[in-house]
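Could you join me in thinking about how sequence relates to backbone shape in a protein? We need material for that, and I hope you will provide a protein of your own picking. Once you have written the record down, we can walk along the chain together:

…
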Amino acid sequence: MVFAVVTPGLWRTPGLRRFFHEGVAFRPRQHVDAVLGWGDKPSSIKARAWAARRHLPFLSVEDGFLRSIHPGRSRQGLLSLVVDDLGIYYDAHHPSRLEQYIAQGDASAAERDAGARAMQLVLQHRLSKYNHMGELQLPSSTPGKPRVLVVDQTEGDLSLLRGGASADTFARMIAVALADHPAAEIWIKTHPDVLSGKRRGHYEQCRLDSRVHFLAQECCPLSLLTQMDHVYVATSHMGFEALMVGKPVTCFGLPWYAGWGLTHDVHPEAARLALRRGGKRNVVDLFVAAYIQYTRYIHPVTGESASIFDVIKWLACNKAIEQEGRAPTYCVGMSLWKRATVMPFLAASTIRSLRHLSPDKLSRLPQDSTIALWGDRHAGLIARARARGLTVLQMEDGFVRSAGLGSDLHAPLSLAIDPHGVHYDPKSASKLEQLLSTSTVNHDDAARGRRIRESLVRNGIDKYNLDHATTPVLPAQALGRRIILVIGQVEDDASVRIGSTLVKGNDALIAVTRRANPDAWLIYKSHPDVEAGNRIGSLKPASETLADQIITEASLGACLVLADEVHVMTSLSGFEALLRGKVVHCYGAPFYAGWGLTTDHFPLPRRQRRLTLDELVFVALCLYPRYRLPGVEGFCSVEDVVDWLAKRKGARRGRTGESWLVRQGRKAGHLAHSVLQHARYV
């Protein structure tokens, strides 16, 4: 099918065409099957006339009920859209497709189950049409004194006109609320468009009873509704959200959720509407019809058709990160390249970069400021900032980082951002350690961890995902012997300096491994940054003699296939070995040690909990790092990154390695890009 758009405003809507894979054309000359128009707005009159002249069906489209993080136009575009071939859901004068879905009540058992689960997730993450607003806690009220919410709307809102409401409706609504609840606090929720100055509301200039309080700030609707005892609306969608949280709702207009026996309907036409709608329904019935049957969803990362669960997961993740980033943030002591690559991960509303932050300057920062630092650098600053009560974020590469080395200026796809410490410091109770110690991992979470683990292994995904031309093989003299893979690291890396105080350096690691395993076949693999000549950590000649085989220019995954055991200080390679079912010995304090999955030579008394491998994977990869993909708005999931890397690996398969000149040219390109990125965020 081909759909026609005839109004420029609708054609410019970001992401509109993704919802119609059959094809959308602007004022096409060729055959089309239907015409699209935006709801019941005046702009749709032209589209309706265009369709009528050609005897074509007209479809109304509108924002879905889980639309986006921010209102307005953004690069991300819409995540959900409703498409109606009968009318539009907010027009009570005519039946809509949504009304028919609810009236028929023919949702399958699977749809009802999905609806119930999705509604619980919406409530759990407090999701709404827009999701940029923070939580709100009202001042404490007198015990036993109820709270009543009256929801204002903007003048000229089409849902008011089509829902049988007017300015007089709002005057009557506040009067009834005061009369019905003589001992209650009455709160009026001002519409966000009124707060921003874009539109006018109905209560702006009113002088009202002293019991009435104006809520003149943006806030998450569900966080407000949970604090109310009764909600009064004209046609606002907040009325349905109030039903979802179990609050009694009185409707003075005729919204889509009225007339089904769930609301107290006082509009003169309410009885006639209820008769047309034809019977009682419960909240899940309405949710399934509105959010699943009536609404189309787009995957925020792939741009393809998606389920409501894909959108909920993305919105929940991005909303949580956005709420954490409300404070002004100062990046201290980072290079231009480092600043440019980490700033997109901070999601802060205001970001400034500083070479240094003296004690005097620190004392003058606002109390809600956040300090962002790389790793464990600036220990004195960290101590002073935390003593002042400021938030300090310590950042490190994520565990599935990139398609290339950071030292070759490959930007990260994931970062660990920790307000408590760094995950490789055994002296700090990092956020990751706290998550591993306390998170409740249910059956679905563990199953997700298993799927991620299997995908990582199947696709050969590791931290850097380098191209390697060679495949290592074992010589004949290794046959019949226990194969131990010893993983070298960058020796001045913070995780070695801080997290491996018993075995300090690659020479010491291979020596202690050889002493404990005199008859094993020892394979030594150095760190890719050391192999590339970018960092220090080469073995001394005397230490090289302790290894039976030294492997370079081969992937970690290929080396792990050969090994029975893997010995590390703090290397992430130990985690990747666990994913592949290998025995792992740890001589330092990596995040995955101490949970009953590794043989630990370094004491970790705080880590008493026993975890399964899938629980470890879920917490470490799903709950801890933040993930972003090039050219994609917002944060994504680890699964999105793994899929992206797997496709990239498949596209590169069979190619030869890059020359030195090509690598330097690519570095120059990355550096130029970092300058542009830095200008965008600072």
